[in-house]
Amino acid sequence: xxxxxxxxxxxxxxxxxxxxxxxxxxxxxxxxxxxxxxxxxxxxxxxxxxxxxxxxxxxxxxxxxxxxxxxxxxxxxxxxxxxxxxxxxxxxxxxxxxxxxxxxxxxxxxxxxxxxxxxxxxxxxxxxxxxxxxxxxxxxxxxxxxxxxxxxxxxxxxxxxxxxxxxxxxxxxxxxxxxxxxxxxxxxxxxxxxxxxxxxxxxxxxxxxxxxxxxxxxxxxxxxxxxx
Length: 228
Description:
Strand order of the largest sheet: 1-2
Shape: elongated
CATH class: Mainly Alpha
Largest sheet: 2 strands, antiparallel
CATH superfamily: MFS general substrate transporter like domains
CATH topology: Growth Hormone, Chain: A
Distance between the termini: 39 Å
Number of domains: 1
Radius of gyration: 21 Å
Helix content: over 70%
Number of helices: 7
Order of helices and strands: HHHHHEEHH
């Protein structure tokens, strides 16, 4: 793989957006189940069992499945740049909903569905953006690096969410394990929303490439016309 190809501005910006999108995806997967399973004695926890929390989260996975083909239609009509930005902003809307409404399990389920719809739209668009800006010989490795960037985002989200939740905790009674405060969960949702908005903003800085424009590598490979 030629790592210099990943430094090309459109590919680099797409990979930065991938890190932020991966961060946003994992943040809600970590925070929402914990809030669902938090004891109701805390005053904000929803007291759901592990099974119940999983069932409340299941529709979000279905939303990703349903919106992936919708993303394909959006890419055909508007291009990968617009589709990825739209997915990021939809995911931010899901976090905004969770930041404002956490009083009932169905509210968190709805927030998860909105965020996962954005993930389904955005994740399908990233490979297209990479392939549009790389020669065919480097497309496979470029998409692989993009997947790695998403993984960096998800692992970073796990660490950041753990830091936020453990650094803002309270002991409900002597001898019990400290639990995160309601403000800690709200801060996690806010961080997720900011990461999603940043992903959309980065995506919009990618230069729109006309369909007829060839990459520099492709231009160099165009054969010279044969002499008469």
